[in-house]
Write a structure and sequence with these properties.
about 700 residues, 8 strands, two-stranded antiparallel sheet, mainly alpha
Length: about 700
């Protein structure tokens, strides 16, 4: 196989109760200021239900949640220290279904709490009236004062057998720890407490309730209107649109039940076209459901109003970043550099004041890890859409946020050039591709193209050519500034070259050079890069005189602009050596290649992929000169470096294996040569068609060695 032209570094810049619970009504005119004596309840209680209970009606449309109900039961039934109340706080943001889960748990476990099951809404400041109101269900006669009645209720729940107390929608830790509130809170080893809350800071064992999975979301909709099997995929899109938000699915279910003539396909089309506007129209149509008292967007508006300014700013950035690609690293950078917000200074965080903000949002479930991956955060889709609406209504604020995203793109795009030798940066490449798409959607064409140009090099080096080609092609016919368009065309040309489309590569490179010649000075660095890249394409097409001419033009520019030992000149010397080799000037080729290596060894670490390319090319020259031991040494050095940095199926490794195979063959080591050719074939066959010259070449070689490759 021939030489590998070295790639030129680019210049700088180129909800679920599935239905909301009914509230417990308590008297409003109780005298709560009189003294009282704690005492036991009356000796002869009134008859009650068995077991005693004060619960909202069982929700006939409740679905799924088997595992969370089992988990809550296990936590409530575990053995604890003597006298300690067993309790658990189910937490999630609004609309996920905390209340419905608690109610369903109670109805499923009536037999486990013979002393009673009771539901108390904590939307009130005083707990005493709600506790006193349980006297009736417990069969306790009311005392002269509500305080005395509450005391009897508390005493009975703490002294009888197992009881369950559901405390719904505890607002926050301040309410929970308030002395007057806790004074009336039944506890002890017999009274189990199931708390629902949006606040993950309650000092209690916590259980986070996640959104409805798709199968259970479809089951919920089917409770309102049967879902035929052919419609499951379409109905699944509804669940996905709401991201398992049961409060939204409940409204949709009621709407579809009231409109039996409306098919699911038409409904989904309208939902996806009109977004939250369609949801509001649905809510208006179904009217006031008896078990649904809040609009979908109001759930999230309340949430956004409740978070501190720095946390809301983090959510705004997350809503603009690519969906499911909110990297904590990016969010920290955006927050830290945002001069319009003040991050809280917490002890121990030093200069990294963004971290407690991000951690709090993760803990609240507002930015949970994406499918368990802590390197990526996600956001509930309806919250994302609602924030998008709010930001669209405030154009100046939105522009400021998008400006910050553009600065992030430039910052991380530049860092991505080290992705080959710093593996942790490779995880950013796909998110950066998505970020480029996002900036393009925001009509920030130049910034989007700049990012695509930045990440072209590492994606090319990692053989992700199809992805980067798709990314670059979308900018060719846009209103991109001339310099950015020329860079995109140049990078696209090198991708086409890597994919074997030499005519297409030449066409795009010549277009790039034409734009640069029109808009740049004749000795501009970008023209030097363009001439060098065109030379490698012409060489592969067999036009050696043309390749020589273009390479000489490139070297002439660089020698004017750079010191004599600059890596950009080394790249030109390396590529010039490959042209000389094809012209059978082996001494000249070796001289230029060794000149390039001497420069690179000054500037790069000894295991850098740039050196691997030069060592590989030098090996082919040495082989042509008959120095097989020297050729083997250089090729093995190249393979050792590339195997450290590249995935095992990278096309550059196939070149190395193929070339080493020919060296082995020349030395008479057929078995070792055959193994190298097999490796090369497996890689090339994965990336290219059977008609590709590389595949055909290695197949022919293996056949000569008496072996038929796999799949042939």
């Amino acid at each position: 196989m021939g030489n590998t032209p070295r790639k030129k570094p680019q210049p700088p810049r180129p909800l679920v109760g599935d239905i909301a619970a009914e509230k417990v009504l308590v008297p409003e005119n109780l005298n709560v200021g009189r003294d009282f004596n704690m005492g036991a309840p009356p000796a002869q209680p009134r008859p009650t239900l068995t077991p005693p209970r004060e619960l909202p009606p069982k929700n006939k449309k409740f679905v799924g949640r088997k595992r969370p109900i089992e988990d809550v039961h296990r936590l409530l039934q575990r053995e604890g220290d003597v006298g300690i109340t067993q309790e658990v706080a189910v937490h999630a943001h609004g609309g996920i279904g905390k209340t419905a889960l608690a109610i369903e748990y109670a109805w499923q476990h009536l037999d486990d709490y013979p002393a009673g099951l009771f539901f108390i809404s904590c939307d009130v400041d005083l707990l005493l009236p709600a506790v006193a109101a349980l006297a009736g269900p417990l069969g306790i006669d009311e005392a002269d004062t509500p305080e005395q009645t509450a005391a009897w209720v508390k005493a009975q729940l703490e002294s009888d057998g197992p009881a369950l107390l559901i405390l719904d929608n505890v607002r926050d830790a301040r309410q929970w720890n308030d002395a007057q509130w806790r004074k009336w809170l039944p506890g002890g080893p017999n009274c189990r407490r199931l708390i629902t809350t949006r606040d993950e800071r309650l000092p209690l064992p916590r259980y986070r309730l996640e959104r409805l999975p798709q199968d259970e979301g479809i089951e919920l909709l089917a409770k309102y209107r049967p879902v035929a099997e052919p419609n499951r995929e379409t109905v699944g899109r509804v669940v996905e649109w709401f991201d398992g938000l049961a409060v939204g699915l409940t409204v949709v279910g009621a709407y579809m039940a009231e409109h039996p003539d409306l098919d699911w396909d038409r409904f989904v089309d309208g939902l996806e076209a009109k977004g939250l506007g369609a949801v509001r129209a649905i809510e208006d149509d179904v009217g006031g459901l008896p078990d649904y008292d809040r609009r979908v967007d109001a759930v999230f508006d309340d949430l956004l109003e409740s978070v501190p300014p720095a946390h809301r700013r983090a959510l705004e950035y997350a809503a603009l970043l690519p969906e499911d690609y909110v990297l904590p690293l990016w969010l920290a950078w955006l927050l830290t550099g945002d001069e319009r917000i003040e991050l809280p200074e917490l002890p121990g965080y030093g200069d990294d004041l963004s971290q407690p903000v991000i951690n709090r949002l993760k803990g609240h479930g507002l930015l949970p890890p994406y499918r368990g991956d802590d390197t990526r955060l996600s956001m509930h889709r309806v919250l994302r859409r609602r924030l998008g609406e709010l930001l669209a209504d405030d154009g100046d604020h939105r522009k400021m946020l998008v400006d910050r995203l553009c600065a992030l793109a430039e910052h991380r795009g530049e860092a991505s050039h080290q992705a080959i030798v710093q593996p942790h940066l490779r995880d950013e490449l796909t998110p950066l591709l998505r970020l480029s798409d996002t900036l393009l959607q925001f009509q920030r064409i130049d910034e989007a193209a700049s990012l695509a140009n930045w990440i072209h090099t590492p994606l090319h080096d990692l053989a992700r050519t199809t992805e980067v080609r798709d990314s670059l092609e979308r900018f060719i016919d846009t209103s991109l500034a001339p310099e950015g368009k020329a860079t995109a065309l140049s990078n696209l040309a090198m991708i086409l070259k890597a994919q074997g489309d030499l005519p297409g590569a030449r066409q795009q490179m010549e277009r790039a050079i034409e734009i640069m010649q029109e808009h740049l000075l004749e000795d501009h660095p970008k023209l030097a890069i363009g001439y060098s890249n065109l030379a490698t394409i012409l060489k592969n097409q067999g036009d050696l005189p043309g390749a020589w001419q273009q390479m000489e033009r490139s070297i002439e520019i660089w020698q004017k602009l750079l010191p004599e030992d600059h890596p950009n000149l080394a790249t030109c010397y390396c590529n010039l050596a490959t042209i000389l080799q094809d012209q059978d000037d082996l001494p000249g080729a070796r001289q230029q290649m060794e000149r390039a290596i001497a420069i690179d060894e000054k500037h790069f670490p000894e295991d850098h992929p740039t050196l691997a390319t030069s060592y590989s090319n030098l090996a082919t020259i040495l082989q042509a000169q008959g120095d097989l031991p020297g050729a083997r040494q250089q090729m093995e050095r190249a393979i050792e470096i590339d195997e450290k940095h590249f995935p095992e199926d990278h096309p550059d490794l196939a070149i190395r294996y193929n070339n080493l195979g020919h060296i082995e063959l020349a030395e008479g080591r057929e078995d070792q040569a055959r193994e190298m050719f097999r490796r090369a074939y497996r890689i090339w066959a994965k990336h290219f068609t059977a008609e590709d010259p590389r595949v055909q070449m290695v197949v022919a070689t293996l056949k000569k060695l008496g072996e038929l490759p796999e799949g042939e």
